[in-house]
Specification:
The chain has 307 residues and is an alpha/beta fold. The protein is 46% helix and 18% strand. It is built from twelve helices and nine strands. Strands 1, 2, 3, 4, 5, 6, 7, 8 and 9 form a nine-stranded mixed beta sheet that branches. The longest helix has 19 residues. The protein is globular. It starts with 5 loop residues before the first strand and ends with a helix. The relative contact order is 0.11.
């Protein structure tokens, strides 16, 4: 399929139990001008065969097979092979409403991204989660999504492929946590206008985050987000203090929870250096006091904890 309107990228790894449900819901879209890229990330169950079967049946489906490298490398392979004018993502254990793509398409004109609502799906309930922001300014939208805990989710957002390519944006393959939020933050930093639509179109199967991420050291992910937040502030000539403070707090909290005292101090100093660089920018000096007291507060807490 040549030059579709939308490329949909779905990383697949050992998803045989729910992959068909996901793909069937995508192929049933009312908007049909799309390609579906199923990226098989070295599955060892029947997922690879299921993907190939769909590609034989429907010309809109393309399958990319690769050695297992994680979800970020799978998404990057999808981006490298996308042909669409716009790009969105889905997870192989989720499903979409039939108006998922049409809702995006109806709101694309003049924007760099569109954000919609979604459904939280658990074993006992389905809860709609819609957002309502009247601003189109990326910094304002970013702060609003932070407050609504909807910053990193990829599948309720659609991205302009030309912007991704022009800015050479890809997922950070070193991150095993918050890699989606890191990508969104860097994309937002290059965007001019974002449309928020108060309508849910995606069904998100809510995972057990403690089982999924409980043993992961999250500092590198949080530090990457903090670095990007500072770049965002610099580029937009305005302070996104909510974004900065949340990322800073996450880094500090992760450092505080470390058992190795020396490593915790090294991490806290890295955070402080970033904040100091931000404070050197004339228009940002008013947050110097905030930055100073925030990281010193955690340093004092950690010191007291060790005594």
């Amino acid at each position: 399929m040549e030059n579709p309107k939308i490329s949909i990228i779905v990383p697949v790894y050992n998803a045989e139990k729910y992959l068909q449900r996901c793909v069937d819901s995508i192929l049933a879209q009312t908007f049909q001008d799309f390609e579906l890229l199923l990226v098989d990330d070295g599955s060892i169950d029947s997922s690879s065969d299921i993907c190939d079967d769909y590609a034989h049946k429907d010309e809109r489906v393309r399958v990319l097979h690769k050695v297992n490298g994680g979800v970020s490398s799978a998404r990057n392979l999808g981006l490298n092979n996308a042909r669409g004018e716009w790009v969105t993502f889905a997870d192989s254990d989720d499903e979409v409403c039939e108006d998922w793509l049409s809702t995006f398409v109806d709101n694309l004109d003049g924007y760099d991204a569109v954000v919609t609502g979604f459904y939280f799906v658990t074993s006992d309930k389905v809860q709609p989660f819609v957002i309502d922001s009247h601003s189109e300014v990326p910094a304002v939208v970013a702060d609003y999504l932070n407050k609504e805990h909807n910053y990193g989710f990829l599948w309720c957002k659609i991205f302009k492929y030309s912007l991704i390519e022009n800015q050479k944006l890809r997922f950070n393959e070193k991150l095993s946590f918050l890699e989606d939020e890191d990508f969104v933050c860097r994309y937002w930093a290059e965007s001019k206008k974002i449309k928020v639509v108060n309508h849910a179109t995606y069904k998100y199967s809510f995972p057990n985050y403690d089982d999924k991420y409980g043993n992961i050291d999250c500092f590198d992910a949080f530090f990457s987000l903090l670095t990007t937040a500072i770049k965002f502030i610099k580029n937009k000539n305005s302070i996104s203090l909510t974004r900065y403070s949340i990322c800073c707090h996450r880094c500090l909290l992760n450092s505080y929870q470390k058992h190795n005292y020396r490593e915790a101090l090294i991490r806290i100093k890295r955070i402080a250096r970033l904040g100091h660089k931000l404070c050197l920018i004339p228009r940002m000096r008013h947050i110097q006091r905030y930055n100073y007291w925030l990281w010193h507060f955690f340093l004092i807490l950690y010191t007291l904890k060790k005594k």
